[in-house]
Amino acid sequence: MMKAVKAWARTWLSTRAQRAAQVARVEAQRVQYLGMIPEAPAGYEVPTVGRRLVEHARAHGWFALEMWTVEDGWPHYVVTVGRPAVDDEGRRAGLRWEYRRMWSSLFVPRGQELVLCGSGAAWTPEEPEVHQAPDLAQVMAVIEAYPVG
């Protein structure tokens, strides 16, 4: 009986390791397909305002997703911050606050700060369809007004 348990444990661990390796391979393929890269390309840094937005969102319990993409050789930094909306009883209302902004390196020499690109996208409980995001100061004010927890 003990041999069978040990054999099962070895099989389970190797199967688990194989699954983890497969998940890692699929994630790497997805990242490569989407053109996402895990960190800033050489010579580029996270924009100061983007870093402040991410830190502010996380400090107030909002999720913050940072992503680098490369399009035609030009790196872009994309930030998405958000949180679900809740009703008066604390239940999820099916709506959300979500703001997405992008900084681009297009025509910016290496070593200089990336430039905020466009107005971004937003989804809010008041306007659940995608619409123009407000400026970053207003986004930070909304984050502060609706903390999680």
How is this structure best described in words?
With 149 residues, this protein is an alpha+beta fold. It folds into 2 domains: 33 residues; 98 residues, no CATH class. 37% of the residues lie in helices and 32% in strands. It contains 3 helices and 6 strands. The chain has a 6-stranded antiparallel sheet with strand order 1-2-3-4-5-6. Helix 2 packs parallel to helix 3. The protein starts with a helix and ends with a helix.
Our measurement of the CA-to-CA distance between the termini, rounded to an integer number of angstroms, reads: 50 Å
Poorly predicted ranges (pLDDT <50, ≥5 residues)?
none
Q: Structural class, please?
A: alpha+beta
**SS field, number of helical segments:** 3
Number of strands: 6
Key terms for this structure?
149 residues, alpha+beta, 6 strands, 37% helix
Summarize the structure.
The chain has three helices and six strands, in the order H-E-H-E-E-E-E-E-H. It is α+β, with helices and mostly antiparallel strands.
Protein topology:
Layout: H1 2-34, E1 36-37, H2 48-59, E2 63-71, E3 74-86, E4 92-104, E5 115-123, E6 131-132, H3 136-145
Antiparallel strand pairs: 1-2, 2-3, 3-4, 4-5, 5-6
